[in-house]
Design brief:
Shape of chain B: globular
CATH architecture of chain A: 3-Layer(aba) Sandwich
Strand content of chain B: 15-25%
Order of helices and strands of chain B: HEHEHEHEHEEEH
CATH class of chain B: Alpha Beta
CATH superfamily of chain B: Glutaredoxin
Structural class of chain B: alpha/beta
Oligomer: heterodimer
Helix content of chain B: 25-40%
Radius of gyration of chain A: 18 Å
Chain lengths: 198, 162
Amino acid sequence: MKKALFITALLFVGLGLVSEAQNGYKIGDKADDFSLKGVDGKNHSMSDYSEAKGFIIVFTCNHCPYSVAYEDRIIELQNNYGPKGFQVIAINPNDPISYPSDGYEPMIERAKEKGFNFPYLVDEGQALYPKYGATRTPHIFILDNERTVKYIGAIDNATTEKKVTEKFAENALNALLEGNDPEVAETKAIGCSIKAKK
Amino acid sequence: MHKTIVVILLIFSTVALTAQVQEYEHFDDFKKERLTSFSEDTIYVINFWATWCKPCVKELPYFDQLEEIEFDKPTKVLLVSLDLQFTIESRLLPFIEKRNVKSEVIVLTDEDTNSWIDKISPNWSGALPATIIIRNQKQYFYEKTYESLEELKQEIINTKNP
């Protein structure tokens, strides 16, 4: 009896893990807004940008070499698509105890060093990234002005910039600017797993 | 005679000094050579990792001990590094040497990862580390970090009666 209970309990734990992995936004879902502290000390929300045509939400961090490799490309996205109405908002979802270099102070330093031209926010309490379904850094979500999820995945198809042959995020943004849904709406990439607090 | 021994010693010391890893630049070659023929007499454990990935590095010693542990069948471990090509010499090889990694390491440098992640498993988001266990031609996929050798051993045992 006890064994049966134990097995049932295990099954539920197992199911819990599975459903957690599949949680998060799908294409077409409406994403929740947030109010998170940025490296400028202020809180930021999507509702701050009433004129925006949409948002490029980037879950990224300091410690992950994949994130670092994409920093310049994220800055470029803001340079090229910010003026067209798509605002980049970067969010660091990692537990700073597991990764001290992902703490608030190092975030401020990194943003200054690289000249981030977009808000870089802390997912304090780690409540936002599971809601979006972010699993790795960098992991991006492109939303339209109604905060409907239009694209989920990678920025492009190679970490080494000169090996890139497909610019997924740019293609998705260009489609949205023309009033179309992205042809490729979901992609995957190798990234650093997001570390949840224990 | 002495000369021969010296030469042999030299060869051995060179081998010991420079760890070698086979590199796959194209996923399809990797798949063809490493993911197609599996014997039912062996349990295969394939771990995807990278030297820059902290949880991967932490669990790596558990994987590296598996071949010495007695399961119901012999175990073969393959460590598939996803380190970038330009860091193979500077990071991956020194890492293998320094940590004295005994299991076979190969490096997969096909950066078009979106084109092949689903071919490993549609359940893989792309986050590292990730592991597949192959037993009796069946593949079991896990996107998780093992906190102990016990936990990893249990995962392998569980594939006996899934």
